[in-house]
Automatic annotation (TrEMBL):
It comes from the Bacteria. GO terms for molecular function: catalytic activity. SUPFAM superfamilies: HIT-like. Coiled coil: none annotated. Residues 4-113 form the HIT domain. It holds the Pfam family HIT. InterPro entries: Histidine_triad_HIT (IPR001310), HIT-like (IPR011146), HIT-like_sf (IPR036265). A motif (Histidine triad motif) lies at residues 97-101. It comes from Paenibacillus lutrae. This is HIT domain-containing protein.
Length: 115
């Protein structure tokens, strides 16, 4: 498999990690769209939200729980943050491993372009 995020998960590609547990990994985006821009991924490879099923739903919940924790640790929980999942080519999904963009640290307005 030639998945960028699996390579990051496996330590083949370096990242600036901010969170890790048995199921979830989070690291800084290399092209941030906000002062805080962290990618939150499941360690299990699931290509896209449309591919999630069965026990994956508990994993998706774990991702959201981790995102809440990270927002608190990054000091953006109170001021607000955005948690975005792109699903499929029309959404702009470029890496086919489920991931969430956790963005904050400034007023993001109604929209922000993500990759």
């Amino acid at each position: 498999m030639d998945c960028l995020f699996c390579k990051i998960r496996d330590g083949q590609i370096p990242s600036k990690k901010v969170y890790e547990d048995d199921d979830v990994l989070a690291f800084h985006d290399i092209s941030p769209a906000a002062p805080v821009h962290i990618l939150v991924i499941p360690k299990k490879h699931i290509a896209s939200m449309k591919d999630a099923s069965g026990e994956d739903w508990a994993l998706i919940g774990s991702i959201h729980k981790a995102a809440q924790h990270i927002a608190r640790e990054q000091g953006i929980e109170e001021s607000g943050y955005r948690l975005v999942n792109n699903c499929g080519p029309d959404s702009g999904q470029l890496v086919y491993h489920i991931h969430y963009h956790l963005l904050g640290g400034k007023n993001l307005g109604p929209l922000v372009a993500l990759h």
